[in-house]
Fold each of these.
Amino acid sequence: MFTGGSCGRALVVVLSVLLAGCAERPDGAGPVTLVFKHAKILGPSDPVPALLREFERRHPGVRVQAESLSWNSDDQHQFFVINLEGRGAAFDVMMLDVVWVAEFARAGWLLDLSRWVPRTELEPHFPSTIEPATWNGGVWAMPWLMNVGVLYYRTDLLAKYGLQPPRTWEALVDQVVRVRAAERDPRLDGVLWQGRQYEGLTVNALEAIWANGARVFGADGAVFPEEERAAGGLAFLRALIVAGVSPSWVTAADEELSRRHFGDGRAIFLRNWPYAMDLFQAAGSPVRGRVGIAPLPGRVGGAASAASSGGAHLGVNRRTRHPELAAALVRFLASAEAQKAMSVGGALNPTRMALYHDRDVVRAHPDFPVVHDLMLRARPRPVTPAYLMLSTTLQPEFSAVLVGVKPPRQAIEHARRRLAYLLEGLR
Amino acid sequence: MTARRLDDARVGRLLLAPALVALAVLAAWPGLWVLWLSLQRRIPVFGIERFVGPAHYAFLAADPRFWNALQVTLIFTFVSVALEFLLGLGVALALQGQRRGRRLAVALLLLPWALPSVVTGRMFEWLYHPSAGLLNVVLGGEAINWLGEPALALPALIVADVWRTMPFVALLCYARVLTIPSEIYEAARVDGAGALATVRDVTLPLLRRVLLIALLFRTLDALRAFDLMFVLTGGGPANTTETLTVYAYRSLFQTLQLGFGAAIGVVVGALVMFVAWGYLRAMAHEEEAAA
């Protein structure tokens, strides 16, 4: 039964590759239009259109039509799923959240780019972007935009009390207590992070769990194999709230809510993504020139530092009528040249390591060499086709720990039981 | 004569046919399809598609997340509909008694109802903002965690929902109030009824039917509540604001467990139909009593 199924599937794969090959128009047989679906590029300027014109210039007879989706990640996912499951070929190239790549590859919605992209072409990208791109032996997507969890701190406050950015969370708590006792400002909060029940909570909780030396999946697929340590990581987050080191409203905070509060000068530390730096250093920002960036702390007796990576990859629709050109577009957009244009022109972080020391890029973003080191050590969230199932199952359990309605051990037990039912036969 | 009547019946059936076909295509067919789907384990990403019978329902019966979502849905529905009623009725009666500026009042009343729900959601997000929100500033700068505290999040959403939909009830009642002939009130006055007695014995009984209709609409809507939770809390903290439809959305669209999600959808459908049936019976009684 099982072998029959996989034989059938293999046949379908072979046939569709053959058919895709047949359907490919020979070059020069009339104008070809590629459709590129991407999330809205936020920031002061959008460098994508200029890059697409450049691609068109190099491929005469090809037109690239960029169509942007809403900025909401849930909406984007839903759009892609409905269209890809419906076998639509309305778009050729798509911008994918890094956590969807394995899912879309498993579903057979992505074209394997191995034919065009040798493994060596992925090497200049940060290591944590490669694991999702090459899930299960293929090359399903190319890394495009990079993200990593970082710790922002107030340089003025730390310098005033002769403190260095903390290496461990325990040290961070000590520093918060010390600075707040001396500042006597009831409006000054300690450390802010994202605890609202959404993907951001998964990221923050995973970082706490990793920092304490635990994993989500063991080598044998067991969920939270180091249960004690995982529970300890979650308990620490709860303790931050109970002790008042973090305000209680972090349980409702997302990136922007916490970023604004820190940006108003109302907190000593903030866990967020690198995008916030440009905003802190913008003209008129109350904290301009007083913000530093450091690795997320580790835990005493745990792992050194454990920041989650994030970002976007570029993939090709399996049903595209122009696989050759679509793959060329992906390779072009992920090239050093294009990524450089994106980071100089816009506020986007490239996935190519060398760009973080490029003279022009560093002039536009002076903090990039520091960010480079943080990204190098970043860890991807679990690379599994069932990632969204995993994350949406964990979110309410993590949230329950943060607001104190469930002890960590029980939350982990509940998550495990649900996952056993939902993931049955999937991994 | 009988032949004629038979003919009429046939023509009647013929005329009804398009409507019945439309209903069958638009309601019955998708309904049955969802029911069929809910008996399968179907996850397209993994190419899984097999019949599991009532396994999903058995899992739901023992699923604390499901019972929690059901409880949240029922509390939300009951409390928000009750508040909308009391306030809506109050506003309608106040409008009736108002002499000037009625048009302006009605226009203002329409505003919350006319706003898209996502806009309403964003607006309340700012009102409830812990450090810069208007609400906390008005309350003296205390950083109350409206959307992140388990005991406060659902009440905060209910307030937003009441603000948004109370005008619907108010306007329906007000429209009915306008059609009550003034002679009835004059007669009541002649009989010596006070203001309170007039409302209790004249206005309210005449509003009964329109109230029942408004109640039906609002209850069915509230049972399917989704947008406010989705925008403001995402169902959190700790799932204290996760309604059945949010749970169904997460399973169906976010994680693509089509069979499991469909099972939750079937439960929501059954719940809505059961409540609607109750209301329709109450309305039928009302008609009989009126006839």
Note: The first helix of chain B runs from residue 2 to 37.
Amino acid sequence: MWPFLEGSPTIPLTIVNTLASGLEERSASVTAIVDTGYSGFILLSEQLFNRLGFEELANESTSGRLADGSLVRMRSAYGTLRISDLEFDLDGLVETCKGAETILLGMDGIQGLALTIDSCAQESSARTCS
Amino acid sequence: MGVITLKIDDKIERELRQRAGELHGASKGAISKSVEEAITTWLSAPRRAVRPARTFIAISDGKRVAQGNDLKLLAMDLRSQGLDPRRVEIQTIPAHPKEVNLGLPIRSRTR
């Protein structure tokens, strides 16, 4: 069970720059907020994105549509999110954009997981599908 | 004991025979023993998520130079060819959407 953060469900996970592992292993253990309104994989702050070396790999250009319909430019690169407790690895497009501060885990980042949100206990948990 | 007949790439077969010989000698069961060890390692690795299969490919000068069913395999393929992942473009098949939602759409209505 993982405690809520500011009223939102969270998942502790490790973000791994898998492609850079031959160069220099770069990973970070973080607590991500589950955001079902975000359709992407995982959103990092620019600082963390750069620190993990994703900016060196960044070659996918994407746009993010905000709730009001406006578009923001995103920088992105492929990486892996790992939930050690569940022995779970998932590859996807790690993204960042100007002003991003909170680490958001989007709908593409919870594929293969069954999440349980317990608002009474202010806790969340997950298990793998298989 | 189960019996499985496999069809594998020639290069992998050569490497398998060489490594099996190094590890278990020239005995008759050397290859079976090595394959069993490899499968055991594979089964004990973290489970990957169940979602539509996605192939990761590396493009250089407009040509596909490496690929893998996950980033780990792609990284291994790049490394085996001495290719720097920072010098190639990574894409997936099927492609990722070019636009993501950063919040559920809202619409205000005035009466």
Note: The CA atoms of residues 82 and 88 of chain A lie 6 Å apart.
Amino acid sequence: MNAPMNYLDGNAAAGELSRIFAADLTSAQGQCANCGVKKPFAEAHLYMQCPGIVARCAVCGHVLLRLVGVAQRAFLDLRGMTYLTLDTTK
Amino acid sequence: MTWRTATVVELHDETASARTLVLAINDWPGHVAGQHVDVRLTAADGYSAVRSYSIASAPSSDRRIEISVERLPNGEVSPYLTQQVMVGDELEVRGPIGRWFVWRPEQAMPIQLVAGGSGIVPLMAMIRSHASADSTAPFRLLYSVREPGATFYRDELRALSSRGDSLVVTYAYTRVTPKDWPRPAGRIDRELIASSMWPSNLRPSTYVCGPTSFVENATKFLIDTGHDRDRIRTERFGATGERK
């Protein structure tokens, strides 16, 4: 994917995701549903110049996560990841 | 994670366009070097803007944190934080955030830090944490900065790096160098990485923070010079979109 360099890392979504998840997602490992790579969510490419947040796979560009807030509701789409593994000790 | 009230207790100018804010937060749970906070400003009409800022200070028990904010042209939040905010003002803060781009004093391996511009901020928290914990992990910092006057924490970096060899700092000036500087102004390149950084066979843990293009270039050069991608952690920043 040759998108312009206007992305951040998964790190930058951590504050918004903390509204939904008790565990820290940045250190979670996720598998891309498209290319199969397993990487920390912190390494995903994050696009925030949109109504919500879009995280793409750093390897293939596939959309991993979309999070949009409308009024008092959050819409979360995680189907771009086959699974997430989280550290539950913290 | 909830929003907490932070009181501005000190302000220091870092450069002509950047300022450090010391924030006192009564119920601050403590942080790890490298973490960030979200800062929310809300206008009288209810409009709010959220931005992420890395914590610059080492973890401590005094329930204070420091953030260093660079003023962005046309920014919505940074002009307020760098020009208007006063001691005694209150801000809303959410954090600490992130458990990936962090350094803990238990990490004894050689550490390579690579900063582009204000990307120095979370790396400075690591350097301060390293100093306050008396860590013996050898640290190297490669700090790319536009010109001498744009350098954050210059005196402190000089003092910390003159204490022995536990911190070695190399500057790369991209536009203007100090007088008689040996390397002409220019971006970091393979040669500078090869000459100033830990060799890849030492398997350093590397942290790169800066604007997205800087991080991409630095990471590419690191991989080209034999560094293991899995030992490089990155944090990119940029002008982010509006969030509520």
Note: The radius of gyration of chain A is 12 Å.
